[in-house]
Amino acid sequence: MRPILRHAFAAGAAVLAGWLAPARALAAERAPDLTLTGTLTGADHETYREVPFRLPAGTVRLTVEFDHTGQAQRSVIDLGLRDPVRFRGWSGGNKARVVVEEADATPSYLPGPLPPGTWRLVLGVPNIRKTATAAYRAKIWFDRADAPFPGFLPAPIKAGPGWYRGDLHMHTAHSDGSCLSRKGSKVPCPVFKTLEAAEARGLDFIAVSDHNATSQNASLRELAPYFDDLLLIPAREVTTFKGHANVYGTTAPLDFQLGSPRAPTLSKILDEVEAAHGLISVNHPGQPSGEICMGCGWNAETDWSRIPALEAINGGALAVFGPEGPLSGIPVWEARLNAGFRITAVGGSDNHDAPAAAGKVSTLGLPATVVHAPELSQVAILTAIRQGHVFVDVWGTQDRLLEVEARAGDRRAEMGDLLPAAAGTKVRVEAHVAGAPEGAVLSLAGDGARLAVAFDPKLGAAEARRAFELTADGQAHWLRVDVRDAKGKLLILGNPIYLRPAT
Ligand SMILES: [Zn+2]
Ligand SMILES: [Zn+2]
Q: What's the pLDDT tens digit per position in 273-303?
C-alpha cells in the first residue's frame, strides 16, 4: 500500500529480559550444534565426497562455517550443499560461512523451505597432492523459529561504545521506493542505491522497512559484506488498515492482515513479533487516516505496555509541517508517557527515493535516530532503543549530540532509564550538548518538569554543559530535555528519564 498522504506531503520492561541477558548468544557465537570433521588424502584428488547430516524438523536457519588445512601444499576443498530434495548451492572455496533461510540465503545458495532429514555437504577436491593430507571441519548451527536473528554479518560493524546515528524507516524496490533508471525512467529502486545514499549521509545503521515485505533481506544479505561499515537491520513496515508499525531485528514471517481471521487483533501480531524477538515501533501515529492516507493513522486497539517504541518524528510530516506541526507524533507519544507507559521516541525518514535528484541531498537520515550503544551491532542497537538510550537529531546533522545524566544519591540514570527517588530527594540533572547553533537553548518537557528548579537554559556555546536540580516528590514522573534554536524550533528531541518511587 502506498500511503497517499505520505507522498502528498513528500510524503515494557518485561520484554527486556530476553534481549539483555544473552546479548551475545548469536548463532555463530554459541557452540555449534554439530561439527563434522574428516581427512582427505591424495586418493581424493579430483573426486567429490558427500558428507551426510540430519537437519532437525523445525529448523528455519542453517549456518555452516567451513575450513580445512593443507593450503600450504595447495590442497583445495570446495563446498556445496544438497538438501533431501534438491541441490542448494555451491560456493566452492569462496565463502567460509554460509547461511540458508526460507526467504534469503548467502549468495551461491538458494533460499527456500528447509526440509528436515538428510542433508549433505558436497565436498569437491580439485587438488590434493599424492602424499598430502587435508583435514576439514564444518561447524553447523540449526536455528529454530524462536532463535533471535543473528544479523547479516557475524561480527559487530564497530567495537566499543558510542552514539551511533541511523535511519529506521525507508522503502526500496521491495515496496514503493523508486528512483530514476539509467535511461531516466522512474523505476522500483534497487536496494543498493539506498545503501549508497545512507553511506553518503554518514549513517552508521539503517533499517530497510518495505511494506509487508521480507524479500529485501536477500539483497541485504548479499550487500552486507560489501557495506561493512553500515549496520543493516532487517525490518519491515507492518502495514494494516488500522495503522503502520515497523518491526526490527527479525526476518521471520509475520501477519499483517489485521482484522482478518489470520490476525483478528493487534495482540495476535504482537505475539508473533515477540516470539520472533522483534522490536516493534508504531509509525507516524499523528497522521490522519481515510482516503487522504489509507491506514496511516494509528487506530488499532493497543495494549501500549507492549509497544516499546514510537516514531515521534516522521520525515514526510517533518518536511511539510516541521517536527511539531499538525501531523507530529510527539503529542501522541507524550499522551502515552502521561498515562505511565515507557516508550522510546525514535525518528524515521520514511524515504521513498533514496538517491536524491542531481544536486540535492537525500532525505535519508532526516530525521536521524541517534543511539547510545555499547557497540555497533544489531543486538546492541535494538537493545539500546528498547532501553530508550536515544535522541532524535531532527534535522539529520552529523554532529549534534545530547547526553543527559540524572543522579539521585548513588543512583544514576541516562535517557530512557528509571531513576528511583524518595520524596524530598534532590535529583541533579546534567545535559551535555554539542553541535548546537548560536543561541540554542535547552527546554524541559514532562510532568516532572515542574519539579525542576529554575535554571538558565541558554547554551552559549556549540559545546556546553548545563546542570539543574529538582526535588523528587516520591511519585512517578517523566522528564525530558530537548534542544531548540533561538526561535524555539526543535533541533533535538530527547528521551525521558523516568522518576519512580524509591523501592
Ligand atoms: Zn507508513
Ligand atoms: Zn513507510
A: 999 999 999 999 999 888 888 889 999 999 9
CA–CA separation, 267 vs 276, rounded Å?
Answer: 14
- Contacts of residue 391, defined as CB under 8 A and 6 or more positions apart, other chains included, come to 370, 402, 415, 492, 493, 494, 495
Query: Alpha-carbon distance 5 to 11, whole Å?
Result: 6
Closest CA to 496 of 338, 376, 358, 348: 338
Dihedral over Cα of 334, 339, 344, 349: its sign? negative
pLDDT by residue (tens digit) across 312-365? 999 999 999 999 999 999 999 999 999 999 999 999 999 999 888 777 889 999
H-run or E-run covering 16: helix 13-20
Whether pTM exceeds 0.90: yes
Dist. CA 336 → ligand 2 center (Å): 22
> Pairing relation of β-strands 162-167 and 205-208?
parallel
Helix-helix angle 378-387:13-20, to 10 degrees? 160
Residues, CB-to-ion distance under 5 Å, ligand 1: 244, 283
Give the whole-angstrom CA distance, residue 221 versus residue 152.
6
List the strands of the sheet with 117-127, edge to edge.
48-55, 117-127, 76-82, 87-92
Distance 49 CA to ligand 1 centre (A): 51
- Residues with C-beta atoms within 5 A of ion ligand 2: 237, 350
SS3 19: helix
Expressed in angstroms and rounded, the spacing between residue 293 Cα and the centre of ligand 2 is 12
Q: What is the 3-state secondary structure (H, E, C) of 162-199?
A: EEEEEECCECCCCCCCEEECCCCCEEECCHHHHHHHHH
